[in-house]
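Reply to dn_fold:

You asked what the input looked like. This is it:
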Amino acid sequence: MQEQTKIKPSYAGICKFCRGEFEKAKMSQHLKNCKERARMEAETAKSSKGKKFVQTKLFHIVLEGKYNPQYWMHIEMPTDAQLIELDDFIRAVWVECCDHLSAFQIGEFYYESEPPSFDFSNIEILNPDEAASMEVNGTTSEESEDDEEDLEDSEDEEDYDKFDLEEEFEPFLLETIPDDIVAKLRPIHSRDDASKYLREELKVKIAAPKDKDRESIMQYFQLRERQRTVKFLIEMIEDHSLYAELGEVLSVGQKFSYTYDFGSSTNLNLRIVSERDGLMNPKDSVRLLARNLAPEFKCSVCDAPATLIFGGAWGDGNTYCKKHAKKFEGEGLLLPIVNSPRVGECGYDGPGSKYGHEFDI
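and this is what came back:
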């Protein structure tokens, strides 16, 4: 009996410019050749509104659900935009429900959001006379501290790229770094240059050891330890916060991933499709280009179109029309079915108001 060929789902979507529907696999090519997009961009460039736009390098990025790829999106962002701006967009349009933590994984490294923190050590308790005196003089300790912090921040930005091996690492740490790496880093005085050298070191391929060859096995583990050291140095030198710029950590063709919420996680795969020169509104960091058509769900009781889902129980058998969802009323477990890979998870009930109108489909 001849084996049947599996047909891959098409997962159609809509172009924001011409409103045409295209299969997921063909959307990148369409966006590259969309005549309506070209017309609209040329019109904007000539308009008074377009004169306020800035010429910049732009990344075309495609996003999709890792485990539910029927949800996908094409966007465009300046290469000098920060990861936190991409994080903000993903949260607003696809995942935000309870201010969970999130992270991008780019290669072997994680770029993570951090929980809010407060340093109680700098709190100064003033007696009433001291507070009154400061008010009369027109200043407070908080204002003066803010001025000092602004000055410190500007100085920090200027000095950030400066690199000195001895100042960067304690002597006991230097002793654990291979001598040849220390020799290469010592004359480098730019953080970016140090990072470039270490990332080239990280690219070195380690061949598998020969079976039962003691010397080969020892060399293999020595090289693995060397790479762990290089990775540690990169993490110490580079900015792995969400304030890293896209163009500094990503390039055309590169794949990376995103996780929102490390409990009931939503996982995305992302890829840099291309880079181009173009106009961008300086007030916007993300331009939506295309996205998937909303998948249709049927009521698990009557097959009518479903509008609600039983929270935490994604998939067939857990979606309901308004009529058959009544039995769950009062339990607080019903969530609206929305066009997002986070549908049915935690308390997610749809995109923020800023992006909710982008595609009324």
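The domain at 13-114+243-292 is CATH 3.10.290.30 (Structural Genomics Hypothetical 15.5 Kd Protein In mrcA-pckA Intergenic Region; Chain A).
Hope that clears it up.
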